[in-house]
User: What shape does this take?
Amino acid sequence: MDILDRRRVYIVPTRPGFALFGVIGLILIGATNYDNALAYILSFLLLGLMFSAMLRTWRNLKGIALHAEDAAPVHAGIPARFDLLLHDPVGLARYAFSFRRLLPRSPRFWWWRPRTEGFGQCETLAAGAATATLSVPTVHRGWLVLGRVEVSSQFPLGVFRTWGYFKPSARCLVYPVAAGKLPLPGVTATAVDEAGSAGPGVDDFAGLRAYVAGDSLRSVHWKACARSDDLVVKQLQGGGHGDLWLRWVDTVALAGVEARISQLTRWVLEADRAGTPFGLQLPALELPPATGPAHRARCLRALALLPT
Amino acid sequence: MSTARTLTPSDLWWCLGAVALALAPHAGRLPVPLSLGVAACVIWRMLGALGRLPLPERHRPVLWWGLQGLAVLTFVLIYAVYQGQLGRDAGVAMLSAMAGLKLLELRNGRDYYAVCLLTYFLVVTNFLFSQAIPTALYLLGVTMLTTSALVRVNAPARLPARACARLGALMVLESLPLMAVCFVLFPRLPGPLWGVPTDSAQAVTGLSDEMTIGRIARLGTSDEVAFRVAFLDGTPSARDLYWRGPVLWATDGRTWRAGAIENTGAPPVVVQGRRLRYDILLEAHGERWLPALDAVTYNDAKSRAQRGRDLVATEPIKRQLRYRLESALDYRLPDLTPADRAAALALPKQAHPRSRALAASWVVQGLAPPQIVDAALANFRREAFGYTLTPPVLPNDPIDGFLFDTRQGFCEHFAAAFVVLMRAAGVPARVVTGYQGGEYNTMSDYFLVRQRDAHAWAEVYLETRGWVRVDPTAAVAPERVSLGINTYAGERGPLRMLDRAGFAARVFNGARQLWDSANYHWSEWVLGYSADRQRGLLEALGMEDVTPARLVLWLTSVMGGLIGLLTLLLLRNRVVTRLPPALRIYRTFCGRLARIGLPRSPSEGPLEYAERVAASRADLAAEVRAIAQAFALLRYADAPAGLSALRARVNAFKPGRPT
Assistant: This one.
């Protein structure tokens, strides 16, 4: 966990803050012109108020710690949701933080303020800990490293904005976009040969076995479960029909690597939805046919991390 | 990015409340249609927030364009009503109209900030009309509310309203020390930066520089403060408290004026007795004269003495003025110049025949001037003259009518009639108007002179004694003059009737004096804190050679110190609850590990953490595990015996960095 110490908390007036400075200046000019003691007093009071706001805004952020968890994988285009854990060793009541992810600076405009994306909010950090979710837009498949996160706050008056940076080591696996119009390939004879006849299939009922994590819920034999206390799944024999293979070579009709990856992604999702055991064959990698969320995740991961 | 969240109706209440309260004191000052219009805007916005009335938004073109038209019309009307003069009144009218119209298009966070900042500005405009203590307190409250409104819109919606209000008020209170330092040390620039529009003078009552019979009587019932006086070295006796205002030489038979005579300045004075120094805090009265005691020997006001030794300022007194004078009560003047003698004897031709006849009779008797004075006073006493605040109307010759017919009058009747008699008898005389007496404030040692203390008396020139004050009213109604004596003695105040009621009256009187005393100090130290007072105060505090540059230096250094102090106070890491001893020892232990690069993550339990440390540092493994075990036992197994052992272990635990 990374703690924001006082040297890494920055603060500047916001636009309303500059406007308030302007109002104070106007009041001061009026006070001098009309020689009005209470106008002087109000302008100094507002000056003091700005100072108090500055300290309180700064204190609101100083000394908090932030930890980010890896986000659950998403398909590109869907925002990645990082869970942030805020921690306050001092135990002050702190309010209204917002989070943004910093993009790398452009080399030409390095001196300009960094571009940001994504948005997260935490309303109250009381009693030492709070959680927040930072959702970051995703575009490309592969690892999305969260990188630098900016935490900012304008509480209590909104006339100052304070911010600081964290660099949590969280990341999110971005699956490729599911796209492409090619139909799901049929079950091929070669696939039957390669897979052999001993593997579990989809067609013929071969008996029941105990549920293991990763089995598709579709294969659970619910009637049998109702009779006993344990979950049991139907075991099917592929028989002569063979397994479904999703192969890189089958997408050769598509132009471009990304289009082929998207097509395979779509097939994986379709096959998984159908509950059909399927295998994935990529240029340097082959995943044997199986079903269930774990298998789907393995396939999507392989597709996401495929080098371009 | 002005605000993180969209406005809720509850945010709006705060903002609307603050604007409404800041505008409320203006309600009576603005033209009635404008007041009503602004109030209607506030109510419309409130109902709009509740969803009871449609607001003028772009998708409602009739309302939207109607509002735009109304806005233009309002500003044109304001311009027309105030004839293009953008002074205080027109400015306030513009700002009020702007605030009202802005409320109707209050949609997002940016508008919200704009309205709040406008409210701070509206607070200031109130000070141009009144700087009294209740006004100041009221507007301090409005400032707190506006600040709370800003807190409200920045705080999470779930934060209770009371917490927002408390924080807003607390932040205003926090800024008071800084405000005080700035107020004392901020360099005051002399004079206005641009012309102060004439309408910023307050509506005033007071003695005018001429006397028409019946005028002072109107002041006679006014409780308003005329001025306050603090004597620096002892108070004079109450019979000397004749505060001289305009000295009137010329008359047309009904009205007395200073007269268009050449002004040669005050004649030099030979002081015979002691001198009195005193500070006067004069309320605005719209005229140029300044009240003073007898012969002024020193004067720091921007004023000069006239022929009659009355002080006249260079500018009309349109705001409170504070000045210091020194007066001699016992003095000798040079002989009367021929021009002055002529002015002090002039009477309108053919006027007052019966008065002239009476005066001629004294001259025929061969009376000397002092005896003539006595004869005139004796005449007032002998005949059935009466002192009344509601004298009968005198349509014809007011002096003759008063002296011989009605014989009922106020101080100006007596003074005018007496001076006419003196002049008719060949004794140089003049009318002096001003104030007499004053109420002594026992709490803060000053005299309060009210408008009802306004008075008129006479001065006659006697060859042996110079100008002598004669108060003919005292001859008829001594209590009118002796009122001040009673107050001064502190025995029987002007509330003689109430005094009989005993304790309650004393409490009431005390409260009244306390309140006036508070007002006096408020005027002295807050409202009247000018460049001069600033210099005086800082020199008294030991600062030498007060220049703006030095002030800025002082201001920055004192502010720097104060800011440092406040920062420490606010940023001190307050640990809310004292940790149990075992936990404190364990924290020390974790701190030592963190220093060598193995910090505990908040989610890690002691044993888990110990295993992680042990895995990366085999040399520390045994000790770390032992400490974790001991701590876990103490904390979770409720075994208080191990505390000192744990403390000893942790104290001895000094892990080095990996080599």
Notes: Chain A has two domains: 1-175, 189-304.
